[in-house]
Every structure is written in structure tokens, then in C-alpha cells.
Specification:
The complex is a heterodimer of chains A (370) and B (275). By secondary structure, chain A is mostly beta strands. Chain A has two domains: 190 residues, Jelly Rolls (Sandwich), CATH 2.60.120.380; 158 residues, Jelly Rolls. Chain A has one helix and 25 strands. In chain A, strands 3, 5, 7, 10, 11 and 13 form a six-stranded mixed sheet that branches. In chain A, strands 4-6-12-8-9 form a five-stranded mixed sheet, with no helix packed on it. A five-stranded mixed sheet of chain A has the order 14-18-25-20-23, with no helix packed on it. The longest helix of chain A is centred in the N-terminal third of the chain and has 6 residues. Helices cover 16% and strands 36% of the residues of chain B. In chain B, helix 2 runs antiparallel to helix 3. Chain B is α+β, with helices and mostly antiparallel strands. Classes of the chains: A mainly beta (370), B alpha+beta (275). At the A-B interface, helix 1 and strand 8 of A face helix 3, helix 4 and strand 13 of B.
Chain lengths: 370, 275
């Protein structure tokens, strides 16, 4: 058998970052000309005003991606050691670029950054970038690559992981973007925050019950999601729309949506039934968290949230048991589409429990650790 | 039915009757007077039948003589699907041999022999029907595909194992057809075998995942086993697992798989052209 070590060739040249963040100037949106006091926008606000463009180069990061290193942790390289440590109350920043000189079928670039948790704490990672509507992802892995915070994905300039409690140990945060590689290096910034982020508890009762009638499973699909390494997003082929719920999630509050994931065949994507619901972020709410609960573990439900302009703003795509969790960066007052889909896993027999009822609790947070 | 009267056999029977024939039997033999049973012929051989009949056939004016109609046809063709050959033994104990039934070039395959006693054109209890009595070119078989087969015949039924993607995904590309010549030195003939193939990207993550899925299938496991394979991939390689599932890269090499052989008919001479 002939083997070509393609991956090492492809990826060795795709992670060359620079420390040019500090000199990048305003982000592409043109809104955020200055720097935040904290270096990175805290949940979308900049100097007290709403910041339509999340990315802010800000001051130099605590660690910058070293040029020339292959920091892909998965197919050829290794995460770079930042030497950074995290304990409750800490915030650390990293800067890097989605390189323009590499990539693969899986991603435009893949960068890993090692850090150490010195005291058990909740950790949330935030990725910010500008100038691209490609899907970007951020996740946290143990040093052995086991996922501890599944991918937060977005097309909208900011993506966050769901807060996870990390025992003392070594981890790496992984940044990637959907292919192809950009024409020029695309800067990004990562913030690792440690502390108490609170929790989204299962809500009681139902504020909205799915309107879609049995047998009309395409009525509220709204979005098509086809998985490769990253999801490929689009409008559904049918004429449908997210259900109007009239729900607004206030800071510190929660709303509950109950629905049923029906048994059906995929409609040219990676999901069976798909259900979408409108939901609005209340005043001051910069982060929505979704707790999606269902009764059986064979069905693999995913959560995605789309903006009013159809951009992807967040994901909960863990493979496995209930509940599915997702943290979504949002702009207060704006309406989003909460999308729930059952992955097409008929090939492995993981659809036996369909139709399956679910309950999605959506909680409002002001963002950041307490 | 075309009927061919064969008389030479009867005269020979009175003079020297080979001892291998017994009552009511029929088999293939070379046309060399030996009447020795043969089960494999080359494509350039002439096939005769020999044996023994128990009944007579009508000749003319109410006269009946020992004889029969014999039919030789590709296996499964049925007794009366081909023209028969009529013969009479003209005495003796009903033995016959050197009844020519097939002339070269022969078509490779297995053949049945049907002996129609009484020459009545009816398949009944008096007759003999020897299924798969002999083979033409029987020693020549294309070998198993070189390298990995497209279909390895595993419990899951999955194909192109080790390739990234389900079975042989659309990202696989056609491989150059392999042509292999196979000799049968005994029969001085050869067969040309061709193998169509596909070349697919592979990666350790894909190979490990395929092995895991195949083990689940072999064990008759539930969905938890299969999902465990998916999780193992995600927790080892991350996002590329999604690309691999669709046949995409990154790859660490390629694998070429071949389908079952397509063999031509056996041809005279060895692959080298001589014997």
C-alpha cells in the first residue's frame, strides 16, 4: 500500500501567525474604531455603546500565535504552548490568524493553544474575527484531544463555547474556520475567561408549544444544515418559516419551548425533522443559553441559532445524550431563530425513538463571569 | 432435432469394447477410442461421449436397435435445448464410445449430458441426466483481485474499507484497469482477466473508524457501539471527522480497491503464446 503523508505537507504551512493584531486598526465593520478597555469587546458592547462589529484588535494579546509553527493539533502539528494559566477570575487573550497559505478539505486553518487550569473553575472561550462570513469555530479540548467544550460555531464575527467546569490540568483551545483559506491572513482574537458563569436551569412549564401539525414536518424548518467538517447552511427548499412565539428572554430569566422531532426523511441535508422558533433577546441580554432536553439518548438533537439576517450565531452540536447545551452571543433587543434538528443517524439505527418530544429552556445572561 | 447416425461405434464394439462402460451410463471422453471419463476439456478439444444404453430406438419398418439420442448443453439449459446426436450401437451389450458431440472451439463453462433412452423426445425415468458432467476451460479461473477488494464480504456489507467516506464515496476516482493473463499449462490455454478499480483517499482516522464500525456490525451491536466509533473519532481528530464522513480529506494516503475479475473466454496457447 502506498501512503502519502499529505496532511503534514498541507498543514505545515497553514498556521503561520503574526503579532500584527495590535496594528490592524479598525475592524471591517467600521464601527469599532477604538480599543476596549479590556482589550476585547465584552459581549458586544464597546465603551458602553452597542458594538455592531464584535471584533476589536485591541491591545496586544497575552499570547500571539508564533509564525511558522504548525499548531494544528489534529492532523500533523501540535498545539502551541502559551504558558498561560487560568484560575477563577482570570481572563487571558490570544491572537492569531486564519492563514492564507494552506488549508485542507476540512478547514481553512486549524490552530491550537495550550493553557493550564491551576484551580478548578468554569471556563468560557470566545473567538472574535472580522472580514469573513465563513463558519468559524472554537472549542476546548483536554491535552489528549478529548472534547470538553464542544464547538461554538458562527458566521457573525463572534463565537463562544458553552461554559464548562475544568479540573486542574492541561487543555488547549482550538480555533478553525471553514475552507477555503482566505486570500490574505485573517486575524482573530481568543479570550479565555474563568469564573462562575452561572447555569441555565431546566425551566418549568411551556411558554410555547410547537405549532407544526403532525404530518406537516416541513412547516417550520427554515434552515438547511448539511455537515462536512463545518455545517453548510442555507434556506430550506420548502416555503416555511420559523414559528412566531412572541417570546422575549430577559436577563436572568428563561423561556421554555416544547416541541416534537418527527420521524421523516432528510430534505437534502444532514437532519430529519427541523424546527425553528423566533425568540428575542431582552434588554441587556448579550448571551442566550439553550438547554435542550429529551427523554431518550439514541436520537441526536442539535441546536443552532440564526440571526435575523440568516447568519449562524451559535451552535450546540454535541454528539450524544440529552441535554444538548449551547451558548449564543446575541445583541440585546434583536430577534433570533432557535433551530432544533435531529441528526440523520438512521444508518446506525439511532432514530428508533422518533417522534420524540423535547423541551428547550432558553436563558438570558448579560455575559461574562460573575 | 437433427439426428446424426453414427455407425462406426457399433463395428468397433464387436471387436474391442473398452471396459469402463457399464449399463445405462453416459459421460464425456476424448475421441481417442479409450472411452476414459474426462471432466475437463480445453477450448480446442473435441468432446465425445461414451457409456451404455439399456433400450432401443426405432430404425425403420418396426425394427429397433440399441441406441439413444444424446444432448450436450451448457448447464441449466435443459435436455432438449440444443440439437441432439442420434447413435446406434449395432449390437454388443449397448456400449458406445467416441460419439462426437462438440467440436472446437468450445465455449468455456460447465456442461450437462442428457441421454434420451428410447429416442422418444421425452424426459422420463428411462433417461440419464448428468448435471455438470464436464467443464470446458475449467482449470482457468481469474484470481482474486490484487490488493484490497471493493467488497471484502464482511457482515456489514460495507465496501472500500479504510477509505474516507461511506463505502466507496464519490470522491474516489477510477483506477487504471489491471489486466492479468492466467495460464493453464495442462490444457495449453490462457485466460485474460481484467480488474476495474477505484482509488480513494484514506487517513488513520478513517481506517480506525471503519474498523470500529465493522466490529460493531460483526458483533450485531446496537447504535451505542456505532456512536461510540463516531465519538472516538471526534475526540481524537475533531472536525475533520465530518469531512471524512463525506469522503473528503485531509488524507494521509490513498488506497486502491478492485472489483471482481472480468474474464474473457479461454484461448488456445499460453500467455506467452507457446506451449
Amino acid at each position: 500500500m502506498r501512503r502519502w503523508l499529505l496532511s503534514s505537507v498541507l498543514l505545515a504551512s497553514c498556521t503561520g501567525g503574526t503579532m500584527s493584531d495590535a496594528g490592524l486598526g479598525p475592524d471591517a465593520t467600521g464601527v469599532d474604531a477604538g480599543t476596549d478597555g479590556g482589550g476585547v469587546d465584552g459581549g458586544g458592547t464597546d465603551g458602553g455603546a452597542t458594538d455592531a462589529g464584535p471584533y476589536d484588535a485591541g491591545p496586544p494579546a497575552d499570547f500571539a500565535e508564533p509564525p511558522g509553527d504548525d499548531t494544528d493539533p489534529f492532523t500533523g502539528g501540535a498545539p502551541t504552548d502559551t504558558g498561560l494559566e487560568l484560575a477563577p477570575g482570570d481572563t487571558r487573550t490570544l491572537s492569531g490568524t486564519i492563514a492564507s497559505d494552506g488549508g485542507s478539505d476540512a478547514w481553512a486553518d486549524s490552530d491550537g493553544y495550550r493553557f493550564r487550569v491551576t484551580t478548578e473553575t468554569q471556563v468560557q472561550a470566545t473567538l472574535e474575527w472580522t472580514g469573513s462570513s465563513a463558519v468559524h469555530s472554537i472549542a476546548i479540548h483536554r491535552a489528549d484531544r478529548h472534547l470538553v467544550a464542544w464547538w461554538g460555531m458562527s458566521t457573525e464575527g463572534r463565537s463562544i463555547t458553552h461554559p464548562v467546569t475544568l479540573p486542574v490540568g492541561d487543555y488547549f483551545v482550538h480555533v478553525a474556520a471553514a475552507p477555503p483559506a482566505p486570500a490574505s491572513p485573517r486575524p482573530y482574537r481568543v479570550t479565555l475567561s474563568a469564573g462562575d458563569f452561572g447555569a441555565c436551569a431546566s425551566g418549568a412549564g411551556g411558554d410555547h408549544a410547537e405549532l407544526e401539525a403532525p404530518g406537516s414536518v416541513r412547516d417550520n424548518d427554515a434552515f438547511s444544515v448539511d455537515w462536512y467538517a463545518f455545517p453548510r447552511l442555507g434556506a430550506t427548499s420548502a416555503v416555511d418559516a420559523a414559528e412566531a412565539t412572541g417570546l422575549t428572554v430577559e436577563a436572568g430569566g428563561s423561556r421554555v419551548i416544547e416541541g416534537t422531532s418527527d420521524r421523516t426523511a432528510p430534505d437534502a441535508d444532514s437532519y430529519l425533522d427541523r424546527d425553528a422558533y423566533e425568540i428575542t433577546a431582552g434588554a441587556g441580554v448579550t448571551e442566550l443559553r439553550v438547554l435542550l432536553e429529551h427523554a431518550v439518548s439514541d436520537v441526536n438533537l442539535d441546536v443552532m441559532v440564526f440571526s435575523a439576517s440568516d447568519g449562524l450565531v451559535g451552535t450546540g452540536v454535541e454528539v450524544g445524550d440529552s441535554p444538548e447545551v449551547a451558548s449564543i452571543p446575541v445583541v440585546p433587543g434583536q430577534t433570533y431563530r432557535l433551530w432544533i434538528g435531529a441528526r440523520d443517524e438512521r444508518a446506525i439505527g439511532a432514530d428508533g425513538a422518533l417522534p420524540l418530544t423535547y423541551r428547550a429552556t432558553v436563558c438570558g445572561f448579560v455575559g461574562g463571569a460573575r | 432435432m437433427s439426428r446424426l447416425l453414427v455407425v462406426a461405434a457399433g463395428i468397433a464394439a464387436l471387436l474391442a469394447m473398452p471396459g469402463v462402460a457399464h449399463a445405462n451410463q453416459v459421460y464425456a471422453a476424448h475421441c481417442d477410442g479409450s472411452a476414459f471419463p474426462v471432466d475437463t476439456f480445453g477450448v480446442m478439444d473435441t468432446v465425445c461421449v461414451a457409456g451404455d444404453v439399456d433400450f432401443t430406438c426405432p430404425v425403420r419398418l418396426g425394427v429397433r436397435l440399441p441406441g439413444a439420442d444424446v444432448y450436450v448443453m451448457p448447464t441449466g439449459g435443459g435436455p432438449f435445448s440444443v440439437p441432439g446426436v442420434h447413435f446406434e450401437t449395432l449390437g454388443g451389450a449397448g456400449s458406445f464410445w467416441d460419439i462426437e458431440v462438440l467440436r472446437p472451439p468450445l465455449v468455456p463453462g460447465t456442461y450437462d449430458i442428457f441421454l434420451d433412452e428410447n429416442c422418444d423426445g421425452v424426459q422420463d425415468g428411462d433417461d440419464l441426466y448428468e448435471i455438470m458432467s464436464f467443464t470446458v476451460g475449467g482449470m482457468l479461473e481469474c484470481t482474486a483481485p490484487p490488493g484490497s477488494p471493493i467488497n471484502p464480504g464482511i457482515p456489514s456489507g460495507a465496501e472500500c474499507r479504510g477509505a474516507c467516506g461511506g463505502d466507496c464515496p464519490s470522491t474516489c476516482t477510477p483506477a487504471p484497469t489491471l489486466n492479468v493473463c492466467v495460464d493453464d499449462a495442462d490444457l495449453c490455454e490462457h485466460m485474460d482477466c481484467s480488474y476495474a478499480g477505484v482509488t480513494c483517499g484514506t487517513h488513520m482516522g478513517c481506517r480506525t473508524h471503519d474498523d470500529c464500525y465493522d466490529a460493531c456490525a460483526a458483533a450485531g451491536a446496537s447504535w451505542t457501539c456505532w456512536r461510540g466509533c463516531d465519538l472516538d473519532c471526534l475526540n481524537t481528530y475533531g472536525l475533520p471527522c465530518g469531512s471524512w464522513a463525506r469522503g473528503g480529506g485531509p488524507y494521509d494516503g490513498t488506497l486502491t480497491f478492485y472489483g471482481p475479475p472480468m474474464g474473457t473466454a479461454s484461448s488456445p496457447g499460453l500467455c506467452s503464446g507457446s506451449c
